[in-house]
Write a structure and sequence with these properties.
alpha+beta, Glutaredoxin, about 20% strand, four-stranded mixed sheet, about 110 residues
């Protein structure tokens, strides 16, 4: 069974270049629902990182600093340590990473 972590970095306020896009939190919830329709989700865990909150974890702290330094578009989606989306995520890219990591797809009825 896969042991995958999907991480979404984002903020309550929609990024200035992403007007009209859903919020990071909405994207985080949408991704969970979309993945649950296609995969057995027992092998996946989710985490949402608010880029405006102080970070205890050094890995998250360093990446949040990078978001601000490089003006990256958020939400930013990682599957494990692989960045799969910046700004509006495409499900195809997320699914590709999940497939490569061996997450089991649900059988179509």
């Amino acid at each position: 069974m896969a042991n995958i972590t999907l991480t979404v970095y984002g903020a309550e306020q929609i990024c200035a270049s992403c007007v009209g896009a859903p919020s990071s939190k909405d994207t985080y919830e949408w991704l969970q629902a979309a993945i649950a329709r296609k995969y057995d989700t027992n092998g996946i865990s989710y985490q949402y990182i608010d880029i405006n909150a102080s970070q205890e974890d050094e890995k998250h702290k360093a990446f949040v600093e990078r978001i601000f330094e490089e003006d990256l578009f958020y939400p930013i989606v990682f599957v494990d340590d692989e960045m799969v989306a910046e700004g509006m995520p495409k499900l195809k890219n997320v699914y590709k990473e999940l497939d490569e990591r061996g997450l089991t797809q649900l059988q179509e009825s």
